[in-house]
Task: structure prediction
Amino acid sequence: MTAIEASQSVSNLSAELQALLDRQRAAFLAEGPVSLESRLQRLDKVIDLLVDNQQALCDALDADYGGRSPRMSRMSEIMGAVNNAKNAKKHVKKWMKPERRKAPVPMNLVGGKTHIHYQPKGVIGNMTPWNVPVGMVFSPMVDMLAAGNRVMVKPSEFNPQTGELIQELVAKYFAEEEVAVVTGGPDVGAAFSSLAFDHLLFTGATSIGRLVMRSAAENLTPVTLELGGKSPVIIGESAKIDETAFKIMNGKTMNCGQICISPDYVFVPAAKVEEFVSQCVDACQTLYPDPCNNVDYNAMINARHYQRITGYLEDAASKGARIINTDDRGAQWNEQDKKIPIQLIVDPSDELDISQEEIFGPVMLIKPYSNVDDCIHYINARPRPLALYYFGKDKAEKNRVLSHTISGGVCVNNVMMHFTCDDAPFGGVGDSGMGHYHGHEGFKTFSHARTVYTDGWVDFIKLGGMLPPYSEKTDKVLDTQIKK
Result:
């Protein structure tokens, strides 16, 4: 499908998108039950597309960012989607089998049976973000295709070259009635979210997620929202500061902090703050020496987000915050290159703009604490995060943190690794999203769980006096069921 021009009228946009949806839905209905062989073939197409075109995809990402490491792109986007597809291929035959459940008493005693059949929903929409523009197209696509669906994708307009390449490659590997990609700006996105999909996945900002959900509600379209927020880290007294700092900075520096589960603010025992700061600086310099001129260190996606981050830093500086540049060379960054070294703000006031807004960039807040319960209270007083991280060897403290907080996912003694668990669900909670995908849970998300009851060889309803006219026999049967 050719790119939908932003200049088109809303009615024309909607009509063209609706026609594509109609073609996919007609093909879905014509196919009937989606065989295991068809699902495996489509998953193989995803793997072939990614493996055969990984260099072109990395080049497009580099061009869109104006500086993005191809190794990071292969590691964070292509590898994850390929592994998810391999995992689905391995398990989809088992996932497709009906699940046996217990039939109600006493029907189960006379041959009554209950099963759950997982049927494909039909046509699934996927609205993807700019920060992981390849991985968030193809990794969820794996779950959607494994469940037997057709797929329509709307990539972010912030990655025009990547989006156009994905559109071209999908058209090469898939029939339009199987998978289609539509490109365009916010008006295309608005029209896309207004379609009566059988399910819609949106990944992006919480503010836009609310709009997407409101639009989907007009059609009662079920939604899965993978949003953002501020992901906290709690460093326990028992944690080794050097190892902890290195793991946190390894995660924070990935994609220049432009990842929804990037660690945003870190609670550090007050007596260990300076040691932690020093170790963070050392880790950054080890991982990305001279970051502004380092090809492995990624740029900000565009000038708008560069200005947003520099605005946060200017606001913090004007309010007297302590800001530490992890690049001790003192190199000056600029809007043309858009590469900002990781900046640490120590003991920030809650009045800072960056304390209130989602960071999504190369800045991390460091908050001293004396009691871990204060950290828990602080986290619980704010919107529920997409991720939470705990470092330490104190099992009781770890369990207290996990049992007294709520987040989309958790890592213990590392950051961001839970997303790589292809056999476990990924998703948010509260302001950070709803629903999940990945693995078996992803298969279920994009399937309709259809309960099928099969009656036994005895008509208990009739013989048990459960039909009118009711009698004392009816009361006796009810008494056996309605009791403590």
